[in-house]
Amino acid sequence: MRTFFGVGCLLVICAGSVLARTVNVEDHGIVPGQDVTFKVNQLLEELQGEKGVTLYFPKGRYEFKPENAIEKYRAVTNHDNSLKRIAFPLYGFEDFTLDGGESTFLFYGRICPVIVENSKNIMLKNFSIDWDTPFHHELTVVERDEKNNTFVAEVSPMKHGFKVQGGKLLLGHYGWEDELGQNIPYDPKTGAPYWDTRRYGLKYRGAKAANVGENRVRLQDATRLAPPLGAVLCAWGNSPNRLAQSIHLGNSLNTTIENVTVYAGGGMGLIAERCENIHLNKFVVTSAEGRTLSARADATHFLGCKGLIHVENCLLEHMGDDGINVHGAYVKVVEYMGDNTFLCEISHRQQKGLIFCEPGDKVMLTSRKNVQPLYESTVTATRILNESRFLMTVDMMPETYPEGPLSFENLTWYPDVIMKKCIVRENRARSVLISTKGKVLLEDNWFSSQMHGVLIEGDNKSWYESGGVRDVTINNNTFVNHGYGNGQGYPLYAAPMLLPEQTLGDDQYHWNIRFTNNRIKNFNGHLVHAKSVKNLIVEENTVEVDNTYPSSSGLPAVALDFCKDVRVKNNSFAGFEFPIRIESKGGTTGLKVEHNTGLDSGTLNK
Amino acid sequence: MRTFFGVGCLLVICAGSVLARTVNVEDHGIVPGQDVTFKVNQLLEELQGEKGVTLYFPKGRYEFKPENAIEKYRAVTNHDNSLKRIAFPLYGFEDFTLDGGESTFLFYGRICPVIVENSKNIMLKNFSIDWDTPFHHELTVVERDEKNNTFVAEVSPMKHGFKVQGGKLLLGHYGWEDELGQNIPYDPKTGAPYWDTRRYGLKYRGAKAANVGENRVRLQDATRLAPPLGAVLCAWGNSPNRLAQSIHLGNSLNTTIENVTVYAGGGMGLIAERCENIHLNKFVVTSAEGRTLSARADATHFLGCKGLIHVENCLLEHMGDDGINVHGAYVKVVEYMGDNTFLCEISHRQQKGLIFCEPGDKVMLTSRKNVQPLYESTVTATRILNESRFLMTVDMMPETYPEGPLSFENLTWYPDVIMKKCIVRENRARSVLISTKGKVLLEDNWFSSQMHGVLIEGDNKSWYESGGVRDVTINNNTFVNHGYGNGQGYPLYAAPMLLPEQTLGDDQYHWNIRFTNNRIKNFNGHLVHAKSVKNLIVEENTVEVDNTYPSSSGLPAVALDFCKDVRVKNNSFAGFEFPIRIESKGGTTGLKVEHNTGLDSGTLNK
Fold first, then answer.
1. Residue B402 has pLDDT above 80, yes or no
2. What b/e string do you get for B286-297 counting C-beta neighbours within 10 Å, with b at 16 or more?
3. What residues of B are in contact with residue A109 (Cβ under 8 Å)?
4. B410 near B335, Cβ under 8 Å?
5. Which residues of A284-295 are buried (b: 16+ CB within 10 A; e: fewer)?
6. A407 SS3 class
7. Regarding the domain delimited by B23-133+241-321, which CATH topology (the fold level of the hierarchy) does it fall under?
8. Prediction ipTM score
9. What is the mean pLDDT of chain B?
10. Residues of chain A whose pLDDT is less than 70?
11. Lipid metabolism: is it a keyword of this entry (chains A, B) (predicted)?
12. Contact A205 B387 (CB under 8 A)
């Protein structure tokens, strides 16, 4: 790409008279087929501070190795904080486009492909991210002895080999070894995790490995039950193992990712925190040819963002965890220090280092006893003590200091979400998790995952993902066989997750959920499970039987618990040979069940 | 300490008209008997930027806990890099005194007591550092079954208990657990590690632990041989376990530590790097009452310092590693990048993050094949890529690029050392390690350690501690029973440590060592082992038998190998009932052996 304005420099007059130029990496000695990390790092350093640059890669396979990569300490939510080697460190960039020109960016070992931090108007497009050796191994079962709970598996990839040491299997990587730790067995017949997956759960003690051939290992008592012949056990070791997410966005405004494919990663495909406006179009997370698993954790994950998260035309499949998760964080109040100042603590180990709030943010003081909102205030000052604790000063205090354990959630940093025309499938865990107080629309998507379809949860107990939703529309989507993991999943499951000692308050936790016009095909006849939801509309959905998996969970098709103002109307169920029923408990009020087909509403409307 | 000039503020007119004042912590709500970390952090933040402050603690026991401590990522040489919680973060201070007023600073868990970084004229004085629970456990053997290689031990301290899990002993700490890992068995009769310590070395496989009482554990096959009844096995788990050094000095000018005692630490007592002029007076590392071990690693350690390291009147005892170690670093040349620029790599895992050089430093290109100096140049630019690698540009290059593997050592950052009137004893490993090209004087000290007395080594193979010495005087010291660990130690052992494929060059590695007027009492009759030393004087030393340990190692009292210009004169050996001999090999030249008593010089002078 020679240009008329000097080497690698194309000047364009843009609207608003901003000078924009395209920098062709070829003009800087960056060519396919070799490790270009150092040169890319160097070029980006030169470009920092310049607005309007498009960094263009002619189509090719560019390699990125960690040895000479720049390094920064990164706290990455839902991952393991550490010094990270970085291929594309986009710190403080503005009006910048990374155009991969349909290239493959091939990574080796623990290096983070793209980090966007403290930047504005960034576009990432037209490239794929893969690793020479992914962060997991695939063990294909080639022999099986159920009686002795033993199986022989072929190990792939073998580039860094494996070894057996003291009866333990150690799987080789680029500079480290993984034990047989976190894993999921995939069924080659469905391309998805197995029905009743936990049968094959790992036993952490008593397992014995033996090397039985160049690329074969025999594992005895490694799993509760030996996986079936042909099963692909995708395994990625124990924590800390989320050290190299594929794309990390932090503290940035207006980020677009378009036509980008992630084949692997030592963590999530995309993790974003404290960003405003993120647009994903044709963002794909999938497994590479010859592999079963793609990203080992979630395909996409958003914590404490605002503005709009717009996700369209995306394919998210074969992940080791959820398709998309949008939420905030509950932080604990350790102590009230006086002078409107709270000593707060990040609640979850993998949220350490999170910027929970900054001055100007609206925060809600929340009971950790009954997860009810208590008092809204505005942050006037913060002081970070360490990755776990910080001081937060607010402008107004309640007249009486509330009793019991307290938390805060940040009301300013909840985004709206639009997710359209996306596919999420063949992954461990859920298709979608939504815990935001913003306006949410999920429409025209196709979902099929091992656990629930759309999980609207919020918990102040283990993951500390806030908060209760206020406006969610789930319309015209297809849900196929959710919950084949244990047979009990629902297309929509909305309920806060509570500790035994936590109680529901007087008011519902979630508000305004519309689940309408969705087409569901499944084995268990499930439609909606809702607990502590106010204003729930379940209308015009069709549920049709699918015989891929064993049928009936024994659970109600529609399960309601402590809900208020619920309309279940014009839904139809077809083909099920077991009772399809609705159950209401926990003092649900204002329930209307009307004009449904194939749903036994018992005495509810009588 | 009320003052006439406002609360906690004593103004003094100093020479040079600098305003100095004393800040009494009591006036800032910092009082003994409680966790004062947050308040101390806050007060130090307020004082930053002010010159001439003395921060004064009225005598008491002040507690420091990690929960609310500020945190910074720290690369600490010879330790494990990590985010560190810090009690006294002295970053960018000038003319500052921390006067503990004879207080005890008591720490809990992983918190670093004092870090001095990028500071000038800092004085630390009059306090002791201890931990509520130290970073090791002491297991006292109360029953022993040699036949079954089993012993029962009482565990101390028990504050955080211990547990046995899957046959493994897990020793409780403030927020973590240690396996039975690195350890040293102490002999209560001598207060020092056992004779032939390795007999009791840990077996890392096949060990079985069982809980046999409130504070008792039975260990079978945990050690090669069950330690004797009464033995105190001091154990501190496996790496990473050097996460909380006691005092860390970095990039600072003129630091004085006076009347400071360190009783424990999760690493070294004092670690200093890239500092100019450090003065230790009455710095004590010792075990607390009721404990056997003090610091788990070296008492003091200096890497890449310059100016003068002045150590006097210090007591360093009961450590898990060396008394003092002064050295530089060899970094590897990965690749010559052209334009006088080298891609270099930090050689040792625990040196990662080291600032090897800065522009203006003189560096020596060195052969990694025969550890000989090749070419001296001056650094004009550096660029740090990550904790392992950096680019270094020099002003001049040799006419012909040298063949074979290369390293650099930094000639500018080698300090002079004066060590006087110190005691180093009852520790694992050596009394003193010296690898500096500066002028060194060790005088009037008392040494007795498990390995060598003074080890002058330098290695470009495993620890990568440069460099060959140029001027060392070891005069009028007492050496008692060095090398009781394996019986083979020497009062003075000077020899570069080489890989099998490394060879000595044409010239000697170490130059100008004078070992004179020392009094030695030992069991093996050893005096000096020297390899590749030029200009070695061994004069007027007395060596007298001591019967504490089994006698004779079979090794020569004076062993010379590839030395040049050596004078062994007027030394006397008394009381040994086995041959005391001198051996010279490896083409040693210019050897004079004269007027020694009790030394069989064989045919050397004939």
1. yes
2. bbbeebbbbbbb
3. none
4. no
5. bbbbbeebbbbb
6. strand
7. Pectate Lyase C-like (2.160.20)
8. 0.92
9. 95
10. 1-18, 605-606
11. no
12. no
Euclidean distance between CA atoms A481 and A471, whole angstroms:
26
Q: Tell me what pLDDT residue A16 has.
A: 46
User: B499 pLDDT band (50/70/90 cuts)?
Assistant: confident
pLDDT of residue A583: 97
Query: Chain-centre distance of CA B527, in angstroms?
Result: 23
Longest dimension (CA), chain A: 81
CA angle A149, A153, A154 (to 5 degrees): 175
Write down the pLDDT at residue B552: 87
Q: How far apart are the CA of A350 and the nearest CA of chain B, in angstroms?
A: 15
Structural tokens at position A227: 């996986």
pLDDT > 90: percent of chain B: 91
* pLDDT tier for residue B18 given thresholds of 50, 70 and 90: low
Q: Residue A280: what are its φ and ψ, rounded to 5°?
A: -110, 125
Residue from the list A38, A343, A387 with its beta carbon closest to the beta carbon of B83: A387
- What is the distance in angstroms between the Cα of B497 and the nearest Cα belonging to chain A? 27
pLDDT digits (tens, 9 = 90+) for B174-186: 999 999 999 999 9
Nearest chain B Cα to A389, which residue? B68
- Min Cα distance B392 → chain A (Å) is 13
Q: Where are the alpha helices (DSSP H) in A426-562?
A: none
Which of A334, A436, A437, A460 lies closest to A392, judged by CA?
A334
From the CA of B82, how many Å to the nearest CA of chain A? 8
Closest to B195 measured CA to CA, from B487, B491, B489, B521: B487
Residue of B nearest to A67 (CA): B389
- Report, at the CATH architecture level, how domain B330-410 is classified: Beta Barrel (2.40)
For Cα atoms B562, B568, B573, give the angle at the middle one, nearest 5 degrees. 120
pLDDT the model gives residue A605: 52
Q: What residues pair up with A454 in beta bridges, in sequence order?
A: A432, A492
DSSP structural state of residue B600: B
DSSP A211-233: E-STTEEEEESSBSSPPPTT-EE
Helix (H) or strand (E) holding A47: helix A37-47
How far is C-alpha A502 from the chain's CA centre? Answer: 26
Encoded amino acid at B135, one letter: F
Q: Which residues contact A498 (CB under 8 A, 6 or more apart)?
A: A371, A459, A461, A504
Quickly state the pLDDT bin for B551 (edges 50, 70, 90).
confident
Q: At which residue do the structure tokens 């006036």 appear?
A: B27
Are A388 and B67 a contacting pair at CB < 8 A?
Answer: yes
Residues in chain A within 8 Å Cβ distance of B69: 385-386
Q: What is the pLDDT of residue A7?
A: 40
- Helix H, strand E, coil C: the string for B15-80 is HHHCEEEEEEHHHHCCCCCCECHHHHHHHHHHHCCCCCEEEECCCCEEEECCCCCEEEEECCCCCC
Phi, psi of A271 (to 5 degrees): -130, 130
8 Å CB contact between B452 and B430: yes
Residues of A in contact with B68 (CB under 8 A): 343, 385-386, 389
Q: With an 8 Å Cβ cutoff, are A386 and B83 in contact?
A: yes
Helix (H, G, I), strand (E, B) or coil at B495: coil
Q: Give mean pLDDT, residues B192-197.
A: 95
Within 8 A by CB and 6+ apart from B344, the residues are B331, B332, B333, B334, B356, B389, B390, B391, B392, B408
Mark out chain B residues that contact chain A at CB-CB < 8 A.
38, 41, 67-71, 73, 81, 83, 85, 166, 205, 343, 385-389
Q: How high is the pLDDT of residue B166?
A: 87
Are residues A35 and A41 in contact, defined by beta-carbon separation less than 8 angstroms? no
Tokens of A574: 């077809």
Kindly report the pTM of this predicted structure: 0.94
- Asked if A343's CB is within 8 angstroms of B385's CB, the reply is no
